[in-house]
Every structure is written in C-alpha cells, then in structure tokens.
Amino acid sequence: MPVYLPIAEMSVDALLLLGIGLGVGWLSGLFGVGGGFLLTPLLILIGIPAPVAVASGANQTLGASVSGLIAQWRRGNVDPRMGLVLLVAGLAGSAAGTQLFVLLRRLGQVDLAVSLFYVVVLGTVGALMVRESVRAILRRRHALPARTHQHSWLHGLPFKMRFRKSRLYISVIPPMLVGFGIGILSAIMGVGGGFMLVPAMIYLLGMPTGTTIGTSLFQVTFVSANVTLLQALQTGSVDIVLTLLLLVGGVAGAQFGAAMGTRLRGEETRALLGLLVLSVAARLLWDLLQTPGSLYFLGPAT
Amino acid sequence: MRAPPPAALALLLALAALAPLRAQAQREPPPAPPPPAGPALAAELAQPRIAVDTAFSGADLLVFGATERLLGPAGDNVVVLGIGPGRDVVVRRRVRRLGIWVNGPSAHFRDVPNYYALAATAPVAGLLEEPARRERRLGLDMLTARIPGPRDPEFRNALIELKRGTEQWNEEEAPVEVSGGRLFHARLPLPSTIAPGDYVVQVLLVRANRIIARQELPFRVDRVGATARIANVSRDQPLLYGLACIALAALAGWLGSVIFRRG
C-alpha cells in the first residue's frame, strides 16, 4: 500500500513503515530507549533522505516515549526529580553539541565523525553493559554476595539532593555532568540518547534498573520534542505523515515492550540492550570498513 | 535513389488532390487561396499537470502527436525530451584512509536537471550529428557535457550512474511508438521522487540529420490535497508546524497508552 510522504517527497509502502514502527516501539518500551539509534539508520536504509530520517525519527521517538512514559509512570518507575536535573543539563549539553557539530562541519568529514562517534560510543556502552550484566547473572546463579552500594569520591561532592524514587542521596553534580555529556553526544549523533542514559544512570549514578527506564523515557520525551521543534524551524525536514505511520506501529509496540519489560529481571534487560547496542555498533563499523557498493554518492550543494 | 516508396506515394496523392483545385481556379475569376499547409509536427501532452497526492507512486506522462510526413526508418523521426528544473549537486568519492572509507574528492555541478527523459523513434545517435545533439542536450553524455562544473569525466559519469539509479534520469529505455505511419506516442516515466516544479517536454522532428520542427510543451508537477497543505504549512509556518508535530506525536503516544491500558 504505497503512500506519498509530503516532506520526503517520495512514495513508501505504508505497511513497511508500520512494521518498522512496531519493532522499534517494542524495543523502546522494553528497554526504555527512544530507539532513534535504530530507527534513523533503518529509515535511511529504505531510501528516506537522511535529514528527513533524522528529524522524523526524533518526532517518532517523542510519540513512542510519551506512550512508554505513561506506562512506566503508572508503574511508579519514574523519578521526576532526577529526570528534571538530567533534562536541564541535557538541553544545555545539546546546545553545546550543536555548536560542536557546526565546527565539525566546517572542518569537513562530518559524516565520518558521526559514524566514528556511533561506533566508539555504542561499542563502549554495549560492551560495558554486556560484561556487567553477564557478571550479575552469574553472581545470582552462584549466589555470590553482591556489592550493591559502593561509596566513592562521587559521594563526597557538595549540593546533595535526595532522589526518593531512586533511593539515592547524592550530589547534584554527577547527574548534571551525565545529562550534559549525553546532550552533547545526542546533538552530534542525532538521537535522543536513551541508550546512553540508561547505562549511565545505572553504572555512574547507581540507580536501580527499574527507575532508570522510566526516568530515561522522561528525559527522552523532552529532548526529542526539543529536537523536533529545532528541526522544523531550521531544516523543515520533519515529515508528519512518516512520523504518524511509524507511531501507529510504535505505540502498540511500546506497550507490549513495557509489559514484557516488567517480567524480565534487571540484569537480563541490561544484557539484551547491551547486545542490541553492540550489534548496531558492529554493523556501523562494518559499513566503515567494507568496500562500498558505489564509490560515488550524491548530495545537495551546501 | 533513396526516396522511399511511401513518401513518394504521399507526394503523388498530394499532387492529385491539388489538381482539381487548379482546374476550378481557371474557371472562376477570384483565385482560391492555396490549401492551408498543415504543420509538419503537432504534439500534445495527455496531462499538462501531474497531481501529487498521498496516493502518488509515480506516473507515466503520455506525449502524443502526428506528423505531416510518414515516420519510419527512412522517413522522418521524432525525438521526445522531458527535462526538469535545475539544482546544484555535489558528487563525492569515497577513498580508503587507514582502512576506513572516508569522503574524498568532490565535484560541484551547477544547474543539474532533477529530471531527464529521452525517447525517439530510432536511436538518437544515428539521427543527428554530435554538435546538434550537444546543443539540444540529446543523450545523458551530451547533457552532462553541458552542465557547468569540473571537466573530470570520472565525476560526470558517476553523476549519470547515480541519477539513473534513482530513476530520475533515463534515456531511450522505450522507443517512441508509431502507429499508422504518422501518429506517434511516448510514455515518459515519472518516478515517485519527482520534485514539484515546472517541467518541459520538447518534441523534435528530425529529417535527414536536421531538426526541421520543434514544439515545447510545458507541464507542472504539483502537490495537491493534504500533501500540498502539509508541505505549505511546513514551509510557511515552521513554528506552528513544529508545535503541531509535537502535539500530534504526543497525542498518538497518549492514545496508544489509553487503548492498551488494561494490562
């Protein structure tokens, strides 16, 4: 069933878009990530122009994460205070990241920089998650004593704040730094940043896995709304028809994913997300290394 | 004598038709006007406007017409050329550095038509000499030779291959069909990625290696209905459009969570 996309200026099979939306939405609900790191490459793969794929991907991420956020909120898995701290720092970080992006473009090779960022960040995050979660699973199997709470230099910082939902009493500085850093990365990579945020909250801030997913969705919702607005204003490449088709599948998928996520143990969820992130990194690395099908490619004049 | 029998026959028929007129003119004093000479070429488009709506998935543009003389291998020939608005493009080449494929040299081409389609009753290279084909941009090699930009043939060939790959450029994929000796029609394929704008179809009549008649048929590609409204709001009121996109996406997400609530 072909449908013409008004901004992308091309015709695509609507069922294909529904299927992509369903799959990405399911992962989004299951892992609490927006799915932008999966969706944008998939859309480019089916022939959507890259700027439209990035902008509409952010718009779709917004809808899917609202759906996931409501589901998580009902289960009491959102820490709004932590979410707000991360969000404020994240918006500041994405503003800084946009400047860095402009600088990279001036130096040329922005595509390469983005690809390398993806491979390095996704590869590192994925490998760390898989390693940690496999250890946690093994520890549970062998009934080893778990080190739940470690005190480090992070706990000596000032401006302590109580995050009741996360059962944390820590300085506000580490969440600010995490939010800011991920804001920079998400602006350069054109993604919401949930796949980086979830592990950062678990490993750097020591939040329980259950709360990280809801809180990450909280942050992703607002970051993707910001990106959607900026893209509509600056590039005019948000395709609402594409977004809504992806969302029809996406919201259904996100609900199933969220329901399934509550049945999985935290470390199992982390291991699966880690494997997913690693496989995307491997795919992107392969694209950088293998000889391309066509040595030439076409772009609009800048 | 290379004169073809059908053309000679046509000439005889024409003379025969004129003969009684002359006889009449001798009898009556006021001289009858000479019979109006039909145009050598008359062509038309089936649709002068291509409407792009939400169900658009590409179209064929039908170009049809008739000629005064017979069309055929030894007679006249018709060449149909469709061309779209120009846009600047950059062709880049990937090169391998330290085992990684990175962007290498690039070539900037100005005013590259976003659409090009060529069809003819016979291979165009055999109908016209190179200077004439170059002037009229008949053939992708002739088209790219005239586009301003670097002279490197490598990038020009890459441009042709890339544009053909997206089906935005094509040449002589299907011939112009002839029926009854003088009627012709051609279908120019318009891909679903065709951009809105002003296009033109040129129909050329070729006789003995020369273009003897030419007709220009403009057509428009327009977005209509919901497609047009969305594109217009996005362009004219980006802030409103962006806020609407946010609201619609959030609404869709909320609806989804309400519908699937029971679990």
From TrEMBL, chain A:
| Membrane among keywords | yes
Cellular component terms, GO, for this chain's entry? plasma membrane
Transmembrane annotation, as ranges: 12-38, 83-104, 110-130, 168-198, 240-259
Which controlled-vocabulary keywords does the entry list?
Cell membrane, Membrane, Transmembrane, Transmembrane helix
Main localization category: membrane
One Pfam entry for this protein is TauE
Location of this chain's protein in the cell? Cell membrane; Membrane
Q: Which domain of life is it from?
A: Bacteria
Q: How does it sit in the membrane?
A: Multi-pass membrane protein
Indicate the family of this protein.
Answer: Belongs to the 4-toluene sulfonate uptake permease (TSUP) (TC 2.A.102) family.
* Protein name per the record: Probable membrane transporter protein
What is the source species? Answer: Muricoccus roseus
TrEMBL record, chain B:
Report the leader peptide range.
1-25
* Classification via Pfam families: Alph_Pro_TM
Please give the superkingdom of this protein's source: Bacteria
Q: Could you tell me the keywords of this UniProt record?
A: Membrane, Signal, Transmembrane, Transmembrane helix
Please give the start and end residues of each transmembrane region: 239-260
Entry keyword Transmembrane helix: yes
Name this polypeptide is given: Transmembrane protein (Alph_Pro_TM)
- Origin organism is Muricoccus roseus
Lineage, top ranks: Bacteria, Pseudomonadati, Pseudomonadota, Alphaproteobacteria, Acetobacterales
